[in-house]
Design brief:
Order of helices and strands: EHHHEEHHHHEEHH
CATH architecture: Up-down Bundle
Largest sheet: 5 strands, mixed
Structural class: alpha+beta
Number of strands: 5
Strand content: 5-15%
Strand order of the largest sheet: 1-5-4-3-2
CATH topology: Outer membrane efflux proteins (OEP)
CATH superfamily: Outer membrane efflux proteins (OEP)
CATH class: Mainly Alpha
Number of domains: 1
């Protein structure tokens, strides 16, 4: 038998009822930024930019290392765990949109002794209670939306971390290949200096050259040996860095083979500046953070308004568990909680939330401008580096011819050793600069790939929102 509750809540009062009938959900403030965008970038390529941009270098060793790093890198795994935390937080925030239901039960047995007889009594109770806050102002919905945007920002943060890791790995890999090529070049230069030393020593022994010529040439050989030592040390340091990026011990053996620096691929299609905000994960992350703060303004404003809570309960009690379900009592309660005076605390928090939102919009605009600058900088640097490499190639050719002619004249006694020494050092320096410039050109292209987000598009990330209060 279901007993009617003695007190049902037929009304919350005429004033509260009017308030509920005329109220409406709070509207989030507008956050559309004024982005100063140009129509196009200063350079336009034609090659399609893929997500796996490192494939353009046609380097199987780099491709294998990249896959291994994406799987084992601990910083990337930490970013995935941060994403999992954001997912859990979004589910937690979404749970407030559903009623909270709890159950209770108890049973007790009392034995009394009045001195002459013993008496026993048993009491069983069972109850259900449901509580629900009517989200009349959109406070809970905004809280849930804010957590959802934080979750989306975490997803973009993971993509941005992957993009940065790929660029770091590629730069380190080609720095290693450059050092290996530098060691090969130093070995060739050492051999050339040794051959020249034999010529100088022959002239010295025949009385046609002073001993200082021999010593100066030996000094050049010692300087080359010192450079080889430093290059080998740098090579080992780069191997350590690659191992750490790949999630293994720095001193672990790295499976790699020396290879020449690759030829630069064709310039990729840079697209339009306006589409960069949709493509780059870090910019999308920054915008989702703006949207999260936008919802925070709604939450702060709604905290200044009354809250309406409904509570329903269903209970039964009996002195024997067989009769426990025979009689029930039900109740429905409603309550309004409204802040009357808090010294301006809630008003100040609402103002703070709005100012924080406005700050984030300005920071987002600045971040977009810096991202556009990264693209333009990479384009300019690559263009000028190409011209610089052309000049260096011509200088190396001329320096080689000068050294050949100077050594020939020295062998005939037509010039002194200082001219030979100067020609040697000039050629050696230019050859090393040329190698470094080749690697620098590759670094500028990697910077361009990273600035363009490596062809990253929104479709590459699943942006379905986590269901409120449910598993993702």
């Amino acid at each position: 038998m279901l007993q009617q509750p003695r007190t049902l809540l037929p009304t919350l009062g005429s004033a509260a009822l009017c308030l509920l009938l005329t109220a409406c959900a709070l509207t989030p403030p507008d956050t559309a930024p004024d982005l100063p965008l140009t129509k196009q970038f200063t350079a336009q390529g034609t090659t399609k930019l893929d997500n796996d941009w490192w494939l353009d270098f046609k380097d199987p060793q780099l491709q294998a290392l990249m896959q291994r790093t994406f799987t084992r890198n601990y910083s990337l795994q930490a970013a995935r765990e941060r994403l999992n935390q954001a997912e859990a937080q979004a589910r937690k925030a979404g749970a407030s949109l559903f009623p909270e239901i709890s159950a209770s039960g108890s049973g007790k047995r009392i034995r009394a002794d009045n001195g002459t007889t013993l008496g026993n009594s048993t009491d069983y109770t069972l109850g259900l209670e449901a509580a629900y806050e009517l989200d009349f102002w959109g406070r809970n919905q905004a809280s849930r939306e804010g957590a959802r945007y934080n979750w989306l920002a975490s997803r973009e943060s993971l993509d941005a971390a992957t993009m940065t890791l790929a660029a770091t790995l590629a730069n380190t890999w080609y720095a290693l290949q450059e050092q290996t090529s530098q060691l090969t070049l130093l070995a060739e230069q050492r051999e050339n200096l040794t051959n020249t030393l034999k010529l100088i020593d022959f002239r010295y022994k025949s009385g046609r050259a002073p001993a200082t010529d021999v010593m100066q040439q030996q000094l050049q050989l010692e300087a080359i040996e010192a450079d080889i030592i430093q290059a080998r040390a740098q090579q080992q340091v780069l191997i350590h860095q690659l191992n750490i990026l790949a999630g293994q011990a720095p001193s672990a053996p790295l499976d790699w083979n020396p290879a020449a620096l690759p030829t630069l691929p064709e310039l990729p299609d840079t697209g339009l500046p306006a589409t960069l905000t949709e493509r780059r994960p870090d910019l999308r992350q920054a915008w989702f953070e703006v949207e999260s703060l936008r919802q925070g303004v709604v939450v702060a404003r709604a905290d200044r308004l009354p809250r309406l809570t409904l509570t329903a309960s269903l209970s039964t009690a009996s002195d024997h568990w067989h009769n426990l379900f025979d009689t029930w009592a039900a109740s429905l309660l409603g309550g309004i909680t409204a802040p009357l005076f808090d010294g301006g605390q809630r008003k100040a928090e609402a103002d703070r939330a709005l100012y924080a939102l406005q700050e984030s919009v300005q920071n987002y605009t600045q971040t977009v401008l810096e991202a556009l600058g990264e693209v333009e900088d990479a384009l300019v640097r690559e263009d000028h580096q190409q011209a610089y490499l052309t000049q260096l190639t011509q200088q190396v050719t001329l320096a080689t011819q000068i050294l050949d002619q100077t050594q020939l004249r020295y062998a005939k006694g037509a010039t002194d050793y200082l001219n030979v020494l100067q020609a040697q050092k000039s050629l050696q320096d230019l050859q090393r600069q040329h190698l470094s410039a080749q690697r620098q050109l590759i670094e500028y292209r990697i910077a361009l790939y990273r600035a363009l987000a490596g062809g990253w598009h929104p479709d590459n990330t699943d942006h379905h929102e986590p269901p409120a209060g449910q598993e993702v």
